[in-house]
UniProtKB/TrEMBL annotation:
Phylogenetic placement of the source organism: Bacteria, Pseudomonadati, Pseudomonadota, Gammaproteobacteria, Lysobacterales
Recorded superkingdom: Bacteria
SUPFAM superfamilies linked: YjgF-like
Protein name, UniProt field: Translational inhibitor protein
Gene3D superfamilies: RutC-like
NCBIfam families on file: Rid family detoxifying hydrolase
GO MF annotation list: deaminase activity
Keywords: Signal
Organism: Lysobacter enzymogenes
Entry GO CC: cytosol
Length: 156
């Protein structure tokens, strides 16, 4: 029994050491305008994919926010998150945590309506808070963390 315990502990130590030796991978957006910003689109660290905050900018519209209020802006924000996840081998189903920043906390119910179209039970963990001064005057910003192991090409 003692040998088994020792072997188990050693195995866990080797596995942790191998994982700890991995360097984070800093992932850039293919959008030339985003390449000028002082942050990565996402960072992969082990099996986690950490996304920078996304706002409701319309792709190809020169940083223009979706028009029409919180609903369309939230829809575009979550579509942008989906695009980032897919670009890096993940999906909305892989998201384990979201942090939502609302310029006006009164928009929380309207945001939730849109959120439910993009996420279903079991829902990711989530925090929501009011924040003034979001980038470009956005009404909402969302950052997410996904658990998305690197694809190795091996069958599971």
């Amino acid at each position: 029994m003692r040998r088994f315990a020792t072997a188990t502990v050693l195995g866990l130590c080797f596995a942790a050491a191998a994982h700890a030796g991995e360097r984070p991978e800093f992932l850039s957006s293919p959008d030339p305008a985003a390449a000028k910003l002082p942050f990565s689109e996402a960072v992969r660290s082990g099996d986690l994919l950490l996304l920078s905050g996304q706002i409701g900018t319309v792709p190809g519209a020169d940083n223009a926010l979706a028009k029409g209020g919180i609903g369309p802006e939230a829809e575009q924000t979550l579509s942008n998150i989906r695009s980032v996840l897919e670009r890096h081998g993940a999906s909305m189903h892989d998201v384990v945590k979201c942090t939502v920043f609302l310029a006006d906390i009164a928009d929380w119910p309207a945001f939730n309506e849109v959120y439910r179209k993009h996420f279903s039970a079991p829902f990711p963990a989530r925090s929501a808070l009011a924040a003034s001064g979001l980038a470009l005057g956005a009404k909402v910003e969302v950052e997410c963390i996904a658990q998305a192991p690197r694809k190795t090409g091996k069958a599971r």
